[in-house]
């Protein structure tokens, strides 16, 4: 699994390297140039396409849509200045905790 996470970490680095480059030559640069709202919109669209694939398409389509969704999520994180390691640490913190208990703990913080 560490190798799988490393793929996402490497993709994040590539995404960061595209910030400020020519939007006519890089889709990632184009997303950055259009702003956080557009990045979030694209993430939302890819999330919906992932759901559709899960409900009515095969595993190959689900894998492709999931990859698109993860890419757009990483672009959103990069735009927000959120390093993937912070997310991995949060997931690790939750490891072994009941989802029900974890959700209750968030409700108390609100």
UniProtKB/TrEMBL annotation:
InterPro entries: HisE (IPR008179), PRib-ATP_PPHydrolase-like (IPR021130). This is Phosphoribosyl-ATP pyrophosphatase. It catalyses: 1-(5-phospho-beta-D-ribosyl)-ATP + H2O = 1-(5-phospho-beta-D-ribosyl)-5'-AMP + diphosphate + H(+). It comes from the Bacteria. It is found in: Cytoplasm. PANTHER family: HISTIDINE BIOSYNTHESIS BIFUNCTIONAL PROTEIN (PTHR42945), HISTIDINE BIOSYNTHESIS BIFUNCTIONAL PROTEIN HIS7 (PTHR42945:SF1). Belongs to the PRA-PH family. Its main location: cytoplasm.
């Amino acid at each position: 699994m560490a190798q799988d996470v490393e793929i996402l970490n490497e993709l994040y680095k590539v995404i960061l390297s595209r910030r400020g480059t020519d939007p006519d030559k890089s889709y990632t640069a184009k997303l950055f140039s259009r702003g956080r709202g557009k990045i979030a919109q694209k993430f939302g669209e890819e999330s919906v396409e992932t759901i559709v694939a899960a409900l009515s398409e095969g595993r190959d389509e689900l894998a492709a849509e999931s990859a698109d969704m993860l890419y757009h999520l990483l672009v959103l994180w990069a735009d927000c200045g959120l390093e993937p390691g912070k997310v991995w640490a949060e997931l690790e913190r939750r490891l072994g905790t009941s989802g029900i208990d974890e959700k209750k703990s968030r409700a108390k913080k609100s």
